[in-house]
Fold this protein.
Amino acid sequence: MPGRVAGLTGAISAAAHSGIRCLGAPTRGAPTVFAKVHQHILSLGLFALLAGAAGAAPVPKEVKNDGGSLEGIWWEARFNNTVNPDAASARRFSFNKDGTAGIHPTAGAKPHEYTYAVDTTTVPPSFTWNGAGGRENYRAVYRIEGDTLFIVFENATSPLPKEVKRGLGQVYYELKRVK
């Protein structure tokens, strides 16, 4: 949009100052009162165009966060761009009431153990995710919609993402609650 506005501004300016005949304005020489009025009208038109362009920005979609609890077992429906439609073979994430968590790579396998702590004062809500023995320390933002948990993980030293969506360069998960 800035390129279009800049191009339009230049065209209006060139037309106003080049001597192009506009509504009876003289082509050369000192501008008449009529030409000055015409310039003001062009300026007002440009202002209206810019104001309209600024007002025409898309309205951001309101993101619903059910505020539900992370507690429970969730299966991995999406990891970054990989969709897993099969709940039976998907990895499981467990969030326990005592602040422990785990990723279960396959059914019956020993889980990778973590701890987590939720912070609902951030927008969007966030949590820390720390591996046993100090390995794998992350922060994440999340959103819960019904039985779907959306998570974006970031390194513990990086700023928290401002939104929960795929494609930001961080690790993205969509998890479904196991019923």
